[in-house]
Amino acid sequence: MKMLKRIMLKTTAPRRGFTLIEMVIVLGIIALLMLIVIPNLNKQRENASKHQREALQEVVYNQAEMYQNDAADHPKDPAASLDNLKTYHYLTPAQYDQAKRDGVELQRPVPNNPDSKTE
């Protein structure tokens, strides 16, 4: 029995690496996980971008109101514009660039009054 064991140990090479089928299975699992994760990441990226635009819009609204309240200090052009908000340091250059790129408006939208009846 010892002799047979010794012969088997000498003749069988140690197993190294993966078989082809094991590699295919692992790659298939990774591909399935990627198919699940990537669309969700894109959706989250879109949501984050939307929220960032909304936050910037709110900042621009507030800064435009502050500019209009302080317009006595700037009698040349009391109307708020993105350029004026940047010139008088109400917006940072990064905020200004993003607001220009996103087409941010300076006026708050007037909420619809459900009580008023338009005919």
UniProtKB/TrEMBL annotation:
The keyword Phosphoprotein does not apply. The chain crosses the membrane at residues 20-41. Keywords: Cell membrane, Competence, Membrane, Methylation, Transmembrane, Transmembrane helix. InterPro entries: ComGC, N_methyl_site, Pilin-like. Residues 98-119 are annotated as: Disordered. This is Competence type IV pilus major pilin ComGC. It comes from the Bacteria. The gene is comGC. Signal peptide: none annotated. Its main location: membrane. It is a single-pass membrane protein. Belongs to the ComGC family. The keyword Transport does not apply. It comes from Lactiplantibacillus nangangensis. It is found in: Cell membrane; Cell surface.
